[in-house]
C-alpha cells in the first residue's frame, strides 16, 4: 500500500460502521475476516487469525470517534496493555455486548474487536485507575446474576487466553509462545539480513543473510550496486518468511518492520524509472578529497567551520560531499536534477521508497539519525538547513522528508507476503546498536566492531560540540513530538577489514578465525605497531593525508606479530576515541558496552579492557544492531508490542583489566609514535592537510623547553656531521 492510500481517508470514513452492519448481517463466522480486511486497508489496526489483537489510534477519527482519545489497546498472548485518555468519560464501563457477540460497542458508537466470542457469556471490561474489572452477566442456573469480580491486570489475560485457546487451539500456539513478531532489515556494508524477533523473549526466531559485493574502480573508491542491495533485501525477506513457515510460525504474526542501515552511503536515482543514476558511493569512499578542499575555502581552511550547524567536520566521510561530487562529475545526474526527477537517499531511503511502491507511489523519507550524517541537516531543528544546502550547492527538492526514528511511516507494497505490514522504525546502524545495547542514559557508551569501529556516547538531550575530533550526532528520536537524544561519536575506518587485509593481501592468515592463535603464538615478545590508515585517519584525528605504517620490525618479527599488532590497533583506536570523549564531556566511562562480529573474539575483548583500563561488557544477544531496529519499530505509536522502560537487559559477559597501568601506558605511547609517523604521506598541495595536527604533538609551553633540550644532542650531531662532510669534500678537491 502506498503512502497516498494510507492517508486517503475520504473514501474510508464509513468503514467501521460498515464493518458492524455487515458483521451483524453475515454472522459471527465471517466477522473476523471482514474486520481484518477493513483495518488492514487503513494500516492502523492489525487483526490476526491466531489470536485477535487490535491497535486503535485515537487520532484516526474514522476508527475512534469516542470523546477523548484511546491511544492504544492491545490484546495479545499473555499481556494486556492499555493507555486510555477519556477526559469527558470517567471510565469505559458503558461498553456493552453487541448482537454479534464479537464486537464490543460503546455508547459513543466506537467499534473494536475484543478478542474472543462465546455463545452464552457476555463480558464487560472496564478500566479503573486501580484495576481491571470483569462483569459476568451470565447466570449460574438459579436465575440470579453472578457477583462482580474485581481482578488485577495480571489476572485478566488468563481469562481471555482460555477463550482464545478454545477458539483457536492450533493456530494460536505461536502467538501465545512468541507474541507478536517484529521484523528487522539490517543492511550493512558487507551483507544484508532480514531477522524476525519474538516480542515476548526478544530472541531471533530465524534470519537469512546475503553478502554484498563492493566495487573498487580505483584506489580510495568504494561503490556498491543499489539494485543488488535492494534485491538482497527482497530475497532475505522471502527466505526468512519461508523459514518461519518451516517452523510452523504464521508470517501474518509480523506486526511491524524496522530498518537499520550503513550510514552516509549515497544513492541517487530516477524518480520516473526507479533506476539508479550511479552506483552507491560507500561511506568509506575518499574520492572527494578535492571537493573537501573546495568547501574548506568557505571556512578559511577550518574543518569545523560548519560544526555549529550540523555537528560534523568537513570530511570525505559524509553524504553532502558525495552528492556534490556526483553533481560535478556525472552529467546525467546533473541533468536529472535539472529535470526534477533525481532523488537522493541514504540506504534506508532507497529501500523504503522501493518497498512501499517505488514509482507507483513509494514514500521518499529518511529518519533524523541518518539525516544527521549528511552534513545537510541542522542539528538543532532536525530539518534540512538552507545555508548548508547552499554551501554545497545541493537543491533541496532532491532530499527526502526527515521523520522521527519510531513512527508508522507506510506499509510494505511490493507483491510479497509482507504486503500491508507497516514500517515503523528507522535507525542508522550505529544508533541502532546504541538502542540495542539499551544505552538510554546519559553517560553510557557502546562500541560496535565490524568493518570499522564506531563508538557512541549518549549525551542525553544536550548537544555536545566536540573540540577533540568527535562528531555530534542524533542518537534517536522515538516519536515525532518527542525530545531528540544526542550522542558524541568516534568513527574508526579500519577494524575487521584490517584483519581481512592480512588474509587477502599479505596472505599470512588462511582465515580470520586464526588471528587469536597467531597472536598468542608470539606471546608478549616484540613491539610491532601497525597503524591501519589505508584511506586516512578518522576520529579523533581526521587526517586524510595519513597512510598505513608498520613500525618496530626486526629480524625476529613473525607473521604472528603483525596479526597481534592489527588486533592491538583496533583497541588503541577505540582508546583514542574514549580519551577524546572524556575530554569533551569532562567525565570518564566506568564501562564500555560492545557488539558486532569481532566481539566473539574473547582475546580481543580482553585486550580492549586491558588497553582502556575499564570493564568491557558484551551482551549474549549478538544481534544488537538488528534488535535496535526492531525496538524502534516495536515501540512505535500504533504498534506498541514493547514498552521502552520494560524491556529487560540481556545477560552479559564482562572482561576486566588484567595488566598494570604502567604497561598499559607504555604500549599506548608507542601507538602514539606510530600515529605521528603515519601522517603527511599524501600531499594535496594546500594547507588543508596540515591545519589539524594530532593532539600528541601539541606541546604545552612548560614541555617545550624540555623537548628542545632533549633534541639538542641530536641537533649538534647532525650539524657536526654536516661540517665534517663539507670539510672532506673541500680536502678532496684540493688534492685533485
TrEMBL record:
UniProt keyword terms in alphabetical order: ATP-binding, Glycerol metabolism, Kinase, Membrane, Nucleotide-binding, Transferase, Transmembrane, Transmembrane helix
Q: Organism's domain of life?
A: Eukaryota
Domain Carbohydrate kinase FGGY N-terminal residue range list? 182-436
Question: Known Gene3D superfamilies for this protein?
Answer: 3.30.420.40
Known pathway: Polyol metabolism; glycerol degradation via glycerol kinase pathway; sn-glycerol 3-phosphate from glycerol: step 1/1
According to its record, what are the GO cellular component terms?
Answer: mitochondrion
Extract the ranges annotated as region (Disordered).
1-25
Question: Which GO terms are recorded in the biological process aspect for this UniProt protein?
Answer: glycerol metabolic process; glycerol-3-phosphate metabolic process
What sections of the protein cross the membrane?
A: 708-727
Q: What is its EC number?
A: 2.7.1.30
Give every Carbohydrate kinase FGGY C-terminal domain span. 445-636
Which class of enzymes does this protein belong to?
transferase
The GO terms describing molecular function are: ATP binding; glycerol kinase activity
Instruction: Report which reactions are catalysed by this protein.
Output: glycerol + ATP = sn-glycerol 3-phosphate + ADP + H(+)
Sorted alphabetically, which Pfam families does this protein's record hold?
FGGY_C, FGGY_N
Q: What PANTHER family does the entry give?
A: GLYCEROL KINASE, SUGAR KINASE
Q: Which family does it belong to?
A: Belongs to the FGGY kinase family.
- What is this protein's record name? Probable glycerol kinase
Amino acid at each position: 500500500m502506498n503512502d497516498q492510500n494510507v492517508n486517503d481517508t475520504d473514501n474510508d470514513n464509513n468503514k467501521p460502521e460498515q464493518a458492524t452492519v455487515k458483521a451483524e448481517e453475515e454472522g459471527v463466522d465471517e466477522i473476523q475476516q471482514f474486520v481484518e480486511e477493513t483495518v488492514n486497508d487503513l494500516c492502523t489496526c492489525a487483526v490476526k487469525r491466531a489470536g485477535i489483537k487490535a491497535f486503535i489510534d485515537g487520532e484516526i477519527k474514522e476508527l475512534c470517534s469516542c470523546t477523548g482519545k484511546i491511544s492504544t489497546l492491545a490484546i495479545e498472548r499473555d499481556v494486556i496493555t492499555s493507555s486510555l485518555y477519556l477526559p469527558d468519560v470517567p471510565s469505559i464501563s458503558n461498553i456493552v455486548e453487541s448482537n454479534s457477540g464479537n464486537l464490543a460497542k460503546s455508547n459513543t458508537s466506537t467499534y473494536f474487536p475484543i478478542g474472543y466470542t462465546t455463545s452464552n457469556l457476555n463480558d464487560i471490561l472496564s478500566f479503573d485507575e486501580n484495576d481491571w474489572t470483569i462483569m459476568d452477566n451470565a447466570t449460574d442456573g438459579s436465575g440470579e446474576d453472578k457477583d462482580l469480580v474485581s481482578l488485577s491486570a495480571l489476572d485478566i489475560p488468563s481469562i481471555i487466553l482460555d477463550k482464545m485457546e478454545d477458539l483457536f487451539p492450533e493456530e494460536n500456539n505461536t502467538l501465545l509462545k512468541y507474541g507478536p513478531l517484529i521484523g528487522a532489515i539490517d543492511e550493512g556494508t558487507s551483507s544484508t539480513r532480514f531477522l524476525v524477533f519474538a516480542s515476548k523473549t526478544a530472541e531471533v526466531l530465524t534470519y537469512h543473510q546475503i553478502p554484498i559485493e563492493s566495487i573498487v574502480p580505483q584506489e580510495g573508491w568504494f561503490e556498491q550496486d543499489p539494485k543488488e542491495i535492494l534485491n538482497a533485501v527482497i530475497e532475505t525477506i522471502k527466505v526468512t518468511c519461508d523459514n518461519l513457515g518451516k517452523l510452523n510460525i504464521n508470517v501474518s504474526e509480523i506486526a511491524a518492520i524496522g530498518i537499520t542501515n550503513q550510514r552516509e552511503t549515497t544513492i541517487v536515482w530516477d524518480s520516473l524509472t526507479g533506476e539508479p543514476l550511479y552506483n552507491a558511493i560507500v561511506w568509506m569512499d575518499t574520492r572527494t578529497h578535492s571537493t573537501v578542499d573546495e568547501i574548506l575555502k568557505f571556512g578559511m581552511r577550518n574543518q569545523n567551520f560548519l560544526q555549529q550547524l550540523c555537528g560534523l567536520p568537513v570530511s570525505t566521510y559524509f553524504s553532502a560531499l558525495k552528492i556534490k561530487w556526483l553533481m560535478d562529475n556525472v552529467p546525467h545526474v546533473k541533468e536529472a536534477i535539472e529535470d526534477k526527477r533525481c532523488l537522493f537517499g541514504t540506504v534506508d531511503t532507497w529501500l523504503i521508497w522501493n518497498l512501499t511502491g517505488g514509482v507507483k507511489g513509494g514514500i521518499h523519507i529518511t529518519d533524523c539519525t541518518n539525516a544527521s550524517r549528511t552534513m545537510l541537516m541542522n542539528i538543532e531543528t532536525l530539518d534540512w538547513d538552507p545555508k548548508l544546502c547552499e554551501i554545497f550547492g545541493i537543491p533541496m527538492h532532491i532530499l527526502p522528508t526527515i521523520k522521527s526514528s519510531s513512527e508508522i511511516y507506510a506499509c510494505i507494497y511490493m507483491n510479497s507476503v509482507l504486503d500491508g505490514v507497516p514500517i515503523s522504525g528507522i535507525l542508522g546502524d550505529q544508533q541502532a546498536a546504541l538502542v540495542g545495547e539499551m544505552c538510554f542514559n546519559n553517560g553510557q557508551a557502546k562500541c560496535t566492531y565490524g568493518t570499522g569501529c564506531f563508538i557512541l556516547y549518549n549525551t542525553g538531550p544536550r548537544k555536545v560540540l566536540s573540540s577533540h575530533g568527535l562528531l555530534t550526532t542524533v542518537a534517536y528520536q522515538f516519536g515525532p513530538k518527542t525530545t531528540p537524544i544526542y550522542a558524541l561519536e568516534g568513527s574508526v575506518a579500519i577494524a575487521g577489514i584490517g584483519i581481512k587485509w592480512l588474509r587477502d593481501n599479505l596472505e599470512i592468515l588462511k582465515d580470520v578465525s586464526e588471528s587469536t592463535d597467531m597472536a598468542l603464538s608470539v606471546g608478549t615478545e616484540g613491539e610491532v605497531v601497525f597503524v591501519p590508515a589505508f584511506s586516512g585517519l578518522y576520529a579523533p584525528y581526521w587526517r586524510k593525508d595519513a597512510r598505513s605504517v608498520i613500525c618496530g620490525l626486526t629480524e625476529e618479527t613473525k607473521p604472528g606479530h603483525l596479526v597481534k599488532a592489527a588486533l592491538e590497533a583496533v583497541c588503541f583506536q577505540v582508546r583514542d576515541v574514549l580519551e577524546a570523549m572524556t575530554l569533551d564531556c569532562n567525565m570518564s566511562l566506568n564501562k564500555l558496552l560492545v557488539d558486532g562480529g569481532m566481539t566473539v573474539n574473547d582475546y580481543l575483548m580482553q585486550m580492549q579492557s586491558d588497553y582502556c583500563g575499564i570493564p568491557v561488557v558484551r551482551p549474549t544477544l549478538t544481534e544488537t544492531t538488528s534488535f535496535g531496529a526492531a525496538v524502534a519499530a516495536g515501540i512505535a505509536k500504533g504498534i506498541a508490542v514493547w514498552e521502552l522502560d520494560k524491556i529487560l537487559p540481556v545477560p552479559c559477559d564482562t572482561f576486566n583489566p588484567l595488566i598494570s597501568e604502567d604497561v598499559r601506558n607504555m604500549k599506548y605511547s608507542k601507538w602514539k609514535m606510530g600515529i605521528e609517523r603515519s601522517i603527511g604521506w599524501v600531499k594535496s598541495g594546500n594547507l588543508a592537510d596540515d591545519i589539524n595536527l594530532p593532539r600528541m604533538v601539541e606541546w604545552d609551553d612548560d614541555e617545550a623547553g624540555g623537548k628542545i633540550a632533549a633534541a639538542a644532542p641530536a641537533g649538534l650531531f647532525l650539524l657536526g656531521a654536516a661540517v665534517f662532510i663539507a670539510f672532506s669534500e673541500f680536502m678532496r678537491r684540493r688534492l685533485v
